[in-house]
Write a structure and sequence with these properties.
Number of strands: 19
Strand order of the largest sheet: 10-9-13-14-16-15
Low-confidence stretches: 10-34, 169-174
Number of helices: 6
Shape: extended
């Protein structure tokens, strides 16, 4: 009788153990390999046979059969070849997301066991073993039942607490950096990922609002979706550093973006590439944007309409130096005062941020943080691809 009780007690404890103590996940996977294709440079006549690896800075990397990687300018390829490149990069990005999600799940399932959290369960197990191993003839029936019931309740409570702790640990691991919050308001159209250095923001470069309405000085460009994905995603530094010498947008940064709005749309210098205030000459639509030479939609004025979507406490975007860009008010709703020449200032905690204004420079008037500038634009930053050559208005 004793042995039967002992067996039942042990089996009950084992069945109540959290799953992560009794099993582990596993599996096998295979990576898809691209078939060899022929790629023609239409300008030089060069033909390369190989598999597409990646696209970076407007160059297509092709791995040949002997393992040598050759590069061709993307805009030298035929329309059909560029379509193949775009389709392949979208597929690679999708596979990367699946692999990333699988890695996170595997990492979460192999977290080290915190035995301190198992202490109530171990004590309960010890109590049941002692009870089963000793004679209980001298105990009254009511006492035995009460003791066993208390032990089982404690065991069940411990199991629940452990599983809840494990679930919360996994949930906490999945929370992204604080800088991702404004962009998450536009998910899934805008997607984010991060590493120790950057927040990566992906989008197709097209906002959800109406485009190109209200422009009085049209450049004859039209909005076209852009491949701001994978290696061509936007990069926001997670640990911005104040520069010894800031870069003013009055005298530099006339090419490329200087910030990124929460809806995944780049923000350019308030001055166009001719050094003229885009807003004042009627080049912008009702939301402060228009299309550039690559048919890429972007803002030149603060997209303050985004505040209603992200909320009053979050920034409406981030400058490419990593400092946040807020709307017309402080996060606590108070009036903005003491802005410097770059439309920024320090908060009470000593942290720097920019603000939007209704007058020039409308947005961040330059880079207070450390950035790398090449050919009058911040690098690295995504490349916009047009479907046609730029022509004058």
């Amino acid at each position: 009788m004793k042995s039967r009780k002992f067996f039942l007690a042990v089996m009950f404890v084992i069945s109540a153990l959290p799953v992560e103590l009794r099993a582990h996940s596993g599996g096998h996977g295979a990576h898809a390999h691209s078939s060899l294709e022929t790629w023609l440079d239409r300008q030089t006549g060069t033909r390369i046979t190989g598999s597409l690896l990646f696209v970076e800075n407007g160059l297509v990397a092709i791995e040949q059969a002997d393992g040598v990687v050759a590069r061709l300018p993307l805009d030298h390829l035929s329309d059909e070849a560029r379509h193949r490149v775009t389709s392949r990069m979208v597929e690679i990005e999708r596979l990367n997301r699946l692999e990333s999600a699988g890695s996170k799940a595997r990492d979460a399932s192999h977290q080290p066991v915190d035995w301190r959290s198992r202490l109530p369960l171990l004590l309960t197990l010890a109590g049941l073993l002692i009870l089963a191993g000793h004679s209980v003839r001298s105990l009254l029936l009511a006492q035995r039942r009460a003791f066993l019931l208390g032990g089982m309740l404690l065991l069940l409570f411990s199991s629940f607490a452990i599983r809840h702790s494990a679930q919360m640990a996994v949930k906490n691991q999945q929370v992204g950096p604080v800088a991702a919050a404004p962009f998450d308001a536009f998910s899934p159209k805008v997607r984010t990922r991060s590493d120790a250095q950057y927040l990566y923001v992906e989008s197709d470069g097209l906002p959800e609002h109406q485009l190109m309405v209200g422009i009085k000085s049209w450049q004859q460009q039209v909005p076209v979706a852009q491949p701001y994905f994978s290696e061509n995603a936007w990069r926001i530094p997670l640990n911005p550093v104040v520069a010894a010498t800031p870069v003013s947008a009055k005298t530099a940064l006339f090419t490329g973006a200087i910030a990124l709005a929460a809806n995944g749309i780049p923000i350019f210098n308030a001055l166009n590439n001719r050094g003229v205030d885009s807003y004042s000459i009627g080049e912008l639509d009702q939301f402060g944007g228009h299309c550039g030479r690559a048919d890429d939609y972007h803002y030149h004025a603060a997209p303050i309409h985004l505040q209603t979507r992200v909320g009053s406490t979050l920034p409406i975007g981030y400058a490419l130096d990593g400092f946040p860009l807020y709307g017309l008010k402080e996060p606590d709703g108070s009036t903005v005062t003491g802005l410097d020449e770059l439309n920024g200032h320090y908060d009470s905690g000593g942290k720097y941020h920019y603000h939007s204004t209704l007058t020039y420079p409308y947005i961040n008037g330059g880079m207070r943080g450390v950035v790398t500038v090449s050919n009058d634009q911040i690098v690295p930053q995504p490349k916009a691809w047009s479907v046609r050559p730029f022509t004058s208005p």
